[in-house]
Design goal:
This protein has about 150 residues and is mainly alpha-helical. The protein has two domains: about 5-60; about 70-140, no CATH class. Helix content is about 70%, strand content about 5%. The protein has a two-stranded antiparallel ribbon with strand order 1-2. Helix 1 (about 5-25) runs antiparallel to helix 2 and helix 3 (about 70-110) packs across helix 4. The radius of gyration is 20 Å and the shape is flat.
Length: about 150
């Protein structure tokens, strides 16, 4: 049994306990009309079940083979995706969802192997505008407006 996995499971369960405690501050509602706490409690329960299942799997699995460190090209891809995700977090409050999504979408598609720029631009535009339409228009999720209002 790898000690690192157990440490991660304990940390996840601790964070999940805080998450569930905060979720309980919202009204639960009724079965016919769930309140604001319903979805967070469901997510928290699934996280707890997943963490416990991981611990059981680790306990029953015995020693695991060593996982090699990623080679240089793989590490570059990981760093590119991390940088793209961070760019979204930094840009979102200032530029809004649509503009902030451009770097993360384009970089992610390039890392996944989509090379021709016209195809990449079309796929990125469909993903970004599609996510805005789904969440912003249909589900009415408010996005930070940014300096451009969108």
């Amino acid at each position: 049994m790898r000690r690192e996995i157990i440490i991660i499971v304990v940390c996840v369960l601790g964070l999940d306990a805080v998450y569930l405690a905060e979720a309980l501050r919202y009204p639960l509602g009724a079965p016919s009309r769930p309140g604001a706490a319903f979805y967070p409690l469901l997510v928290g329960a699934l996280v707890a079940i997943s963490a416990v299942a991981t611990a059981v799997e680790e306990w029953r699995g015995g020693p695991a083979p060593a996982v090699p460190w990623p080679d240089r090209p793989a590490l570059r891809r990981v760093m590119a995706l991390t940088g793209a995700a961070l760019s979204y977090v930094v840009l979102l409050p200032y530029a809004g969802h649509v503009i902030a999504s451009i770097p993360v979408t384009v970089i992610s598609l390039r890392v996944m192997g989509l090379r021709p720029w016209p195809v990449l631009g079309a796929v990125a535009a469909l993903l970004i505008l599609g996510s805005y339409y789904l969440f912003g228009v249909l589900l009415m999720v408010p996005f930070p407006a940014g300096i451009f209002g969108g």
